[in-house]
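User:
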Amino acid sequence: MATQRKQQTQTKQGPRPATNETAARLFLTGFVCLCIGLGIGYLFGKQSAGVSAPVASMPFQAQTSPPSQGQPPMQNPAVAAKNEASLRALLMANPKNLDALIQLGNLYYDQEQHLQAVEWYGKALEIDPRNPNVRTDRGTSYWNLNRPDEAIAEFQKSLQVDPGHAQTLYNMGLVYLQGKNNIAETKKAWQKLLAVNPNYPNRADIERQLASMAAPPPAGVPAAPKNAGPAGREK
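Assistant: Predicted structure:
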């Protein structure tokens, strides 16, 4: 009986003290868990700190003034309508606003509404009849309407003010060539163009065309759409 009670007492004792090997394993496991926890916390904190606030994109700025050289691109219809309304408001306040009249003519030209361009360039010329740039633009508008005689008349008026005006001379030669098939007048205009404008940008092209004037007019002679640089309007 004594032996049996002793056995029962043993079964009620708590867990046996851990051996040195068990303690080492527990310590190592705890250390590893601690390191993993610290690592996760560090990475999470770094990621959170690196997220910046949203940055607004730079606003798009529409170009409202025409380029100073070359053929201006056709404006978006909505932009053109807005610019037209602004110019017309200026003219309602002051019908003699010369700059607004010219800009409205330019706007219609850029939109290929040449009849309206002729009208508004004409209003500008009523105020400033000695403006060769506007005069040349109006003549070029007539040319784009297949009205070569009226175009030539405008070019002649421009040359009365500025006999060496490069774009007037170029456009006049072009209209005589393509609109009137008058090679003699074309040569006259372009030869004068090169004589008074030795640094004309398209000099080499004009010289080649003059050299070929004995032959039929070359196909594909580029039209000079407007008056500013080789193929554009003035500012």
